[in-house]
Design brief:
Number of strands: 8
Strand content: 25-35%
Largest sheet: 4 strands, antiparallel
Structural class: alpha+beta
Radius of gyration: 15 Å
Order of helices and strands: EEEEEEEEHH
C-alpha cells in the first residue's frame, strides 16, 4: 500500500508509514502514538507523542486479541501505552513488527514503512 501525495501539478507515491496506516486505529481514532502512563519508576514527566525508546511489546491475552501494550523508556522513567485495533489479525502482525524494533525511538518507529502489513 502506498500513499499518494497530490499537489497541483505533482503526484508523488510515498511508502505507507506506521503512523499513517489506515488500520492503525480503533473506532475511527488513530492509535499512534499511544497515550503514555507512568509506571512509577523515576519522575513522571508526562510525555506526549512520539517520544522515548521502545523497551518491550506485549500482545493482550484477552480475546479477541486486539490490544498491544508498549513499554517505553524516557529520561530514566518507564511508561506504558496501549494500542487498540479493530482488526485482531493486523494487531498480531503489528505486535510481531513492533517486537522487531525494540530499542528504537518511538519517532523512528512511527516513520517506518509498513506497506507490507495488510
Amino acid at each position: 500500500m502506498w500513499l499518494d501525495i497530490v499537489t497541483p501539478g505533482h503526484r508523488v507515491r510515498a511508502p505507507m508509514v506506521l503512523r499513517n496506516h489506515p488500520l492503525m486505529g480503533y473506532r475511527g481514532l488513530n492509535n499512534w502514538p499511544p497515550i503514555w502512563t507512568w509506571r512509577g519508576e523515576g519522575e513522571d514527566l508526562r510525555p506526549r507523542g512520539e517520544i522515548g525508546i521502545l523497551k518491550d511489546v506485549f500482545l493482550s491475552k484477552v480475546e479477541p486479541r486486539s490490544r498491544i501494550y508498549l513499554i517505553m523508556g524516557h529520561e530514566d522513567a518507564e511508561y506504558i501505552g496501549c494500542l487498540l485495533f479493530e482488526d485482531s489479525a493486523f494487531c498480531k502482525q503489528m505486535c510481531e513488527f513492533l517486537n522487531q524494533h525494540r530499542g528504537s525511538t518511538i519517532a523512528a518507529i512511527g516513520s517506518l514503512d509498513v506497506s507490507h502489513l495488510l
